[in-house]
Amino acid sequence: ALEEANDCLSDLPSPFAYLLTIHLREGRNLVIRDRCGTSDPYVKFKLNGKTLYKSKVVYKNLNPVWDETVVLPIQTLDQKLWIKVYDRDLTSSDFMGSASVALTELELNRTTEQVLKLEDPNSLEDDMGVIVLNLSLGVKQGDFKRNSSFTRNVRLSESLRKNQLWNGLVTITLLEGKNMPRGGLAEIFILLKLGDQRYKSKTLCKSANPQWREQFDFHYFSDRKDMLDIEVWRKDNKKHEELLGTCHVDITALPTKQTNCLELPLEKHPGSLLMLIAVAPCTGVSISDLCVCPLGDPNERQQISQRYCIKNSFRDIKDIGFLQVKVLKAVDLMAADFSGKSDPFCVLELGNDMLQTHTVYKNLNPEWNKVFTFPIKDIHDVLEVTVFDEDGDKPPDFLGKVAIPLLSIRNGKQSCYTLKNKDLERASKGVIYLELDVLFNPIKASIRTFKPREKRFTEENRKFSKKILSRNVDRVKKITMAIWNTIQFLWSCFLWESTVKSLIAFVVFVVTVWTVELYMVPLALLVLFAYNFSLVTTGKELMGLDEDEDEDDKESEKKGLIERIHMVQEIIIAVQSILEEIASFGERIKNTFNWTVPFLSVLACLVLAAATVVLYFIPLRYIVLIWGINKFTKKLRNPYAIDNNELLDFLSRVPSDVQKVQHAELKPSSSSSPIRKKRSTL
Q1: What is the mean pLDDT of the chain?
Q2: b/e string for 364-383 if b means 16 or more Cβ within 10 A?
Q3: Which DSSP symbol is given to 582?
């Protein structure tokens, strides 16, 4: 990788006369920044206040070994190279000390070992540890042809690329607790942590043997020695949380490709946790250049297509499909810096999977030209591509975002997407060019549709928003009014307000009751699907949700509010969430019949057709008997089975009206189109 970097740097622009090779080796006796008595350190190298390279994170280690090499172009030697160490947290980074090296003190073409003592003038700690690295300064000569933005792209070195790619999957099934300590009216929940990945279980009421029956998937990096940390928490009615106990699991010590049943005793507390842990290899995750993209090779494309063909539908049932994303470029981005420029980079998210491009510095029209691949766990997932502006040590600034459902992807077609705001409801400034390909097995995807969705990593608690509450109230009001109007119509038939209408309703009622059979119920729903499909094909609009054009309300946060205000706010947030769930449930049912997602509507039609045939040939009493026997014996056949409702799991894949607006593709405005700009220039 170092030789390739040197070859790439052979065409540096003329202002760069030197090459500085840095071999970051290790840290020794670093300071503690986490409550567990350790730190998650990483290193940034800076020149003139600008970050040129960031190392990988070494988790839970005060003597980290990085062993990373990077080559940096240098203009002049009258400056200092700053080495700053930080502790990685979920929301921010804690400073762990810094050191500097004067470039004028380095000898040309000679590698020197530097043992640098870390210091922080704002800290009272005397010994903050040392950083060990090798530095080599060389002179760059020759004809330079490429632009300076290319040198910045070297920032995505092989070590940074490898730091993002996981090669395994840790599947944890949290079953139950045994002899857990009780706490009056308190509720119990579990926190699971592996590196910077966190999950929170559902909260259960007091019980000595609580039953969770939840499954969680963690990314596994074989080059990291991460410990699985499990914490048991108790929460009372006053929102007070107390740690009841902890336990730890060394993932590297577990055998792979098999399910391990573990009963883990809590440290320093009574009780234990019963869980299943399986470690399996994971393929399909990669970052590459355009010239070596996986689906660009006909042989490799054929192999991947063969893996997801119909005849392999029951091999590796969890491997649903394969997604390839070419992140090409962005045009006319928002300027986030005072200089009128931005330092943009892209973050791609598919469920809990996340990959990132390199940063293109001082450019509103960046070109990344990178290829990312993801394994698909659920064909109903949504790919989110977010553009950020790198802002040094501060959190990056948001520039724009797009959300693309996998089922809406047009394979092999370069598409221009208008960036949206954080809520994905209105257009932001700029467009991004992507080329997407998705290959999947429809039978595996159909089976996965009726299983629980993957849980998301723990995020920050949601805050109260008057806008969201008002929107959810309006959504529920629309559905309630539709139901109320239907009831009023039926009631008016009983009251004979219109003789013709009531007479027709009476005849329909008598004929229906006299001739209806149970198999006709799914058949009637099929007719509704067919009717709405005819509306879709003819281009007629179905009922949907208008975009909310109201501006965001400005909300102020006040600290030190009394407990009653907190209680009222918590109730309002709960009501807000309930309203959103009710509105989404009704909209998902409507959108299933409206052919919003053709794949799901076809799947529903197939299930209804099968139900029609089964109910036509098999008496209802036998079906009910089989269903009851299955439900009563499920726990006996599989003691560790996770309960689920197939119908609710299916509906969870159908987008609500709000998600339809968020996932809708915006047409680029004339001002954002580079083609129009060229024409106007001509």
Answers
A1: 81
A2: bebebebbbbbbbbbbbbbb
A3: H
